[in-house]
C-alpha cells in the first residue's frame, strides 16, 4: 500500500512512535526515525523495522531546534529524494498544577510538542509542495479537547497542535497535502501498567468501551490517514479514545 514511500516519524525510538513506524514499514514504506535519544536506545526498534524488509534510517535530533530540523529534513531528502509522510509524534510531559508550574516546565513542553511539530512541518512541506503530494499526521491528545488537571502546559501544546493541523490543512490542500491529527485517549503502556488497580479502575470508568487502548490502535489510525483510503480527509482530529470524549 505504501511501497516506495518515505515516512518520517518523530519520537519513534520507542512507544507509540515505534509502533507507528513498524505499522508503516509492514505496509512497505521506507522509514526515517527522528528521535532525541542516542542511537543505542533505538537499536531494537531499528532492527525490528529492518527485519520487515524496508530501508530504515535514524537521525538524532532535538525537534525544538529550528535550524537542526531543517538540516535533518534536507539530509533526508538528499538521501531518499523525497518525503511522502510526516508523523509528528515527539512529545514530553512535565506535569504540575499551574500554581507550582515553573516557566521552564511550560517552555520545555511547548517547545518540543508544539514548536517541534511546527519546525518539522515547515521544513517538510517545502519539499512536499514540489512533489505535489504529502500526508502529515500530528499526534495530539484527547485532553486537548477536554482539559486535564495538572497538565496546563501539555494540554495547551496538544490543543495548539489541533489548531496548527487545521490551518496547515487549509494552506496546503491545493498542493495535494493532507494534514490530520489523532487524539489518543488512555493507552496501555509501561506507565499505565505501573499504576495501582484503584487508579486504573478510575480511568476505565471514563471509557465507555471499558478497556484501555493499545499502541497498535494509534498506529492503525495513522496508517489509515496516510493511506489512499483517506485521500479526501484533511483538517480532521480523529479521536482514538474508546468513547472517552463523547
General description of the model:
By secondary structure, the chain is an alpha/beta fold. Helix content is 48%, strand content 15%. The chain is built from 9 helices and 7 strands. The chain has helices at residues 15-26, 39-50, 66-80, 103-131, 143-146, 152-172, 190-193, 197-204, 215-226, and strands at 6-10, 30-35, 56-60, 85-88, 134-139, 177-184, 237-240. A 7-stranded parallel β-sheet has the order 3-2-1-4-5-6-7, sandwiched between helices. It is globular and about 50 Å long. The model has no long low-confidence stretch (mean pLDDT 96).
Shape: globular
Our estimate of the beta-strand percent is 15-25%
Percent range of helical residues: 40-55%
Give the termini separation: 32 Å
Point out poorly predicted stretches.
none
Radius of gyration: 17 Å
- Got a strand count? 7
Across the major sheet, the strand order is: 3-2-1-4-5-6-7
Number of helices: 9
Quick description:
This protein is of the alpha/beta class.
Amino acid at each position: 500500500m505504501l511501497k516506495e514511500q518515505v515516512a518520517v516519524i518523530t519520537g519513534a525510538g520507542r512507544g507509540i512512535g515505534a509502533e507507528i513506524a513498524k505499522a508503516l514499514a509492514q505496509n512497505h514504506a521506507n522509514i526515517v526515525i527522528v528521535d532525541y535519544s542516542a542511537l543505542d536506545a533505538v537499536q531494537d526498534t531499528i532492527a525490528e523495522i529492518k527485519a520487515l524488509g524496508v530501508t530504515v534510517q535514524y537521525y538524532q535530533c532535538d525537534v525544538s531546534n529550528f535550524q537542526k530540523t531543517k538540516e535533518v529534513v534536507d539530509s533526508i531528502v538528499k538521501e531518499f529524494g523525497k518525503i511522502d509522510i510526516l508523523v509528528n509524534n515527539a512529545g514530553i510531559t512535565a506535569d504540575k498544577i499551574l500554581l507550582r508550574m515553573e516557566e521552564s516546565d511550560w517552555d520545555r513542553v511547548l517547545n518540543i510538542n508544539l514548536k517541534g511539530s511546527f519546525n518539522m512541518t515547515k521544513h517538510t512541506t517545502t519539499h512536499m509542495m514540489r512533489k505535489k503530494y504529502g500526508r502529515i499526521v500530528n499526534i495530539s491528545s484527547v485532553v486537548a479537547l477536554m482539559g486535564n488537571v495538572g497538565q496546563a502546559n501539555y494540554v495547551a501544546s496538544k490543543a495548539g497542535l489541533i489548531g496548527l493541523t487545521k490551518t496547515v490543512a487549509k494552506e496546503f490542500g491545493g498542493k495535494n497535502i493532507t494534514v490530520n491529527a489523532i487524539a489518543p485517549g488512555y493507552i496501555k503502556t509501561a506507565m499505565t501498567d505501573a499504576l495501582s488497580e484503584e487508579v486504573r479502575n478510575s480511568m476505565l470508568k471514563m471509557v465507555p468501551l471499558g478497556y484501555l487502548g493499545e499502541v497498535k490502535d494509534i498506529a492503525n489510525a495513522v496508517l489509515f490517514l496516510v493511506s489512499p483510503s483517506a485521500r479526501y480527509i484533511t483538517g480532521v482530529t480523529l479521536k482514538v479514545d474508546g468513547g472517552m470524549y463523547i
